[in-house]
Amino acid sequence: MKNDTIIWQYEKKILYRSGKADFVIMIDAIKDRRSIRRYRTDEVPRPYIEEILRAGTLAPSSKNRQPWKFTVVQGEAKKEMLHVMEDGLNRERINPLLPESRKLLKGAEYTLSIMKQAPVIIFVTNRNGTDIREKMDAEERIYEICNAQSVGAAIENMTLAATELGLGSLWICDTYFAYDELTEWLGDAGALYVALAVGYADENPAPRPRKDISCVTEWRQEAEA
After folding, report:
1. N or C: which terminus of the chain carries fewer CB neighbours within 10 A?
2. Helices 20-32, 138-164: inter-axial angle, 10-degree rounding
3. Residue segments in the chain with a per-residue pLDDT below the cut of 50
4. pLDDT confidence of residue 21
């Protein structure tokens, strides 16, 4: 251990970097990550939150545009935000933005209860994004898709950083049921993409089934012509 470099330390949590150990830590975080839906009430130390945000900023991005913005919501602001999202879910029952997804609204109500438990909610928005109703030509759509991929990479980095720090997280897209209400509440943060719940897990779910790589991979080595 003497040749290792401590790369991050807070209280009893220490991460080490030493050649192959880097790869082991990364793979372990990928394997250990779970979508957590039950949280303890313990507060998350701010340095942990900052490390999660820093991991997000290290993600690759199309043309290095780094289109993400993170809005960390806690305390009284979180209570206000939850009321706003609840208003959006109530409006969605009467005047739906997503009429074909009405059957998923119960799931969004459950997600709201999870957000109430988690001590930290991080909204991830696309600073360069457009309203979901806006029509686009092909080039604009490609630009939007590339930025969406960049933001997705940032979110994945954040979930893995949370796992390494002993925290649980939940990638939440049910916020789209309250898209207009949350967009207005967030102000000029950009196009709403996702909310990330973060906190200490109060459950230890088993890994979900995954397709084998043989089911999702095609290998090509010979020319078609």
Report:
1. C
2. 100
3. 1-18
4. 57
Residue-wise pLDDT for 78-89, tens only, equals 999 999 999 999
Instruction: Give the tens place of pLDDT for each residue, 20-43.
Output: 555 556 788 888 899 899 999 999
Please name which of 121, 95, 116 lies closest in space to residue 177, comparing C-alpha atoms: 95
| Distance (Å, whole) CA 161 – CA 23 | 14
- Please tell me the distance from the alpha carbon of residue 4 to that of residue 122, in angstroms, as a whole number: 32
CA–CA separation, 181 and 201 (whole Å): 28
Buried-state track 58-82, b at ≥16 Cβ within 10 A, e below 16: ebebbeeebbbbbbbbbeeebeebb
* CB 155 within 8 Å of CB 194: yes
Residues 6+ apart with CB under 8 A from 52: 122, 158, 161, 162, 165, 167, 198
Residue 17, H or E segment? strand 13-17
Specify the residue for token string 């095609």: 218
Query: Could you tell me if 129 and 67 are in contact, meaning their C-beta atoms sit under 8 angstroms apart?
Result: yes
Query: In the chain, where are the structural domains located?
Result: 1-32, 35-203
Rounded to two decimals, the pTM is 0.86
Amino acid letter at 7?
Answer: I
